[in-house]
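Researcher: Go.
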Amino acid sequence: MSVETLNELLVSELRDLYDAEQRLTKAIPKLVESCTHTDLVDALDKHLGQTRQHVTRLEEAFAALGEEPKAETCAGMKGLISEGDDHAGDAEEGSVRDAAIIGAALTGTPTAGAQPTRTHHESLTR
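Model: Structure:
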């Protein structure tokens, strides 16, 4: 799809973020099942709640723009989740796997995509 306007760019970025957040809502519960440390389970559960809120906010943003909430594959998040699954799957159960999960969580954040999208939205509403 060719992007010709800032509005089209905003919608495209929202769809990418929507996919990333939806992928996380499916991946985080799998990580929780693999964890052994209660603090890590609690942190991931909290993050899952925040991620679900992000999905809701993105749906609200689509509605405000008169667009259907639709995901476009976020290759970055897809790759990060796959890599995180590989590392966690290769690690011995227990503290080593917990450390692998923490490492995957630290590198896999969709926050990097949120700021440019917010900036495009602000430039459209000025």
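Model: The radius of gyration is 16 Å.
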